[in-house]
Design brief:
mainly alpha, about 50% helix, about 5% strand
Length: about 140
């Protein structure tokens, strides 16, 4: 399984929104500059996040976006599933695909364990954890 740029950028966008959560809406233009990601691409991503209810938009010249919850209430898994869809490594694990060999397939156990591991990781890490890790990284920077 490979996470696309859309998923990676969605995490960066959400971290930026959480980091600059001072009561004022955060503009896509500002996020674009800070994250060095095209505004057009961020607009596509934020649209999906908005439809999923993870962010709220304010229109107008002073508009922008807010998180709808506190950073500790978002998991990496929630964010990635909006942009990536199911994180399942193979379709047969979540019964998306019909498979005649499912009952006799020994590799299904490998795929199920991999699926459980992926979900176990992404569903345990919160946006708040990412913010804390970002702070730790910046505290280590010494001139």
């Amino acid at each position: 399984m490979k996470i696309s740029t859309k998923g990676r950028y969605a995490l960066r966008l959400m971290i930026d929104l959480a980091n600059y959560n001072n009561g004022d809406p955060v503009s896509i233009k500002d996020i674009s500059k800070r994250q060095e990601i095209s505004e057009k691409y961020l607009e596509q991503i934020i649209s999906a996040l908005n439809k999923a209810g993870l962010v709220r938009s304010i229109r107008g010249s002073q508009g922008g976006y807010f998180l709808t919850k506190s950073p500790k209430e978002y998991t990496v898994g929630m964010i990635l599933r909006v942009t990536e869809g199911d994180l399942c490594p193979v379709a047969c694990v979540n019964n998306e695909a019909e498979c005649d060999k499912r009952e006799s397939c020994v590799t299904i156990k490998v795929w199920q364990k991999l699926n459980d591991a992926i979900n176990g990781v992404v569903d345990q890490i919160t946006l708040e954890d990412l913010l804390n890790w970002q702070t730790e990284l910046s505290d280590q920077y010494v001139i």
